[in-house]
Amino acid sequence: MAQLIVELIGTFVLVFTVGASVLGGAGALAPLAIGSALMVMVYAGGHISGGHYNPAVSLAVMVRRGMTVRSMVEYWVAQVVGALLAAGAVLLVVGGAAPTPLAPDALKGLVAEFVFTFALCYVVLNVATADETTGNSFYGLAIGFTVTAGAVAVGGISDAAFNPAVAIGIIVLGMVTPGSIWIYLVANLLAAVAAAGIFLLAHPRALAGPVAGEPDVEP
Fold first, then answer.
1. Of 9, 12, 47, 55, which residue is the least packed, with the fewest Cβ within 10 Å?
2. Across the strands, what pairs with 214?
3. Three-class secondary structure of residue 214 per DSSP
4. For the domain 2-207, what is the CATH superfamily, name and number?
């Protein structure tokens, strides 16, 4: 339960920052605010839940054998609830006037979301789950700045979600057209699986042990 509460809170803060900074007119500072919010939430909750705050990251961790399927689904529920609560809070605080919703070009949106979701999941797996980097203090910075870089690079193309929970939040806020949800789901989840696959190629020992939380499961 503590892990799920941490995931809900972290996702809430992330999505609230996305909505409030964009709809509130932060302009060029929005990517920095969003990346910083993710960074501090990762530092705050990483030692409790892993600091995913993103269904794609949880999928990547599950494929990497860092959590069970059941735990992943529980994380997904907490993350989506956090995103929906954050969207409601943004509408209350900033107001209901949303800009003209973005309707991403399908191909460009898929590529943009895939590239930076892959980068995000790849970075998370390597800095926060690899044995070789255990105990490091840079993982939060690395994860937060990956999102900042992506938001600056492709924010105008896809609104830079890199996260199905964020995608749901920005659709509720009217920042993206509802019909575009499939772009985020397909690109984000495929990128998570791809990143986990590359991680396992580079760290084959990760396949040798039991799944985290399921010591009786055979590899």
1. 47
2. 211
3. strand
4. Glycerol uptake facilitator protein. (1.20.1080.10)
The β-bridge partners of 102 are 176
Cα–Cα distance measured from residue 142 to residue 27, given in angstroms and rounded to the nearest whole number: 23
- State residue 135's pLDDT score: 84
Residue 66 has pLDDT above 60, yes or no: yes
Give residue-wise pLDDT tens across range 113-165: 999 999 999 999 999 998 888 888 889 999 999 999 999 999 999 999 999 99
Task: For 162, list phi and psi in degrees, rounded to 5.
Answer: 55, 25
Contact 214, 65 (CB under 8 A): no
Rounded Cα–Cα distance for residues 39 and 142 (Å): 8
For the chain, give the longest Cα–Cα distance. Answer: 53
Angle separating helix axes 55-63 and 181-202, nearest 10 degrees = 30
The answer to whether 55 touches 198, Cβ cutoff 8 Å, is no
Q: What is the pTM of this model?
A: 0.92
| Angle in degrees, CA 147, 120, 2, rounded to 5 | 90
The pLDDT assigned to 133 comes to 86
Question: Measured between alpha carbons, how far is 212 from 61 in angstroms, rounded to an integer?
Answer: 10
Q: Write out pLDDT tens, residues 181-207.
A: 999 999 999 999 999 999 999 988 776
Residue 19 near residue 92, CB atoms below 8 Å: no
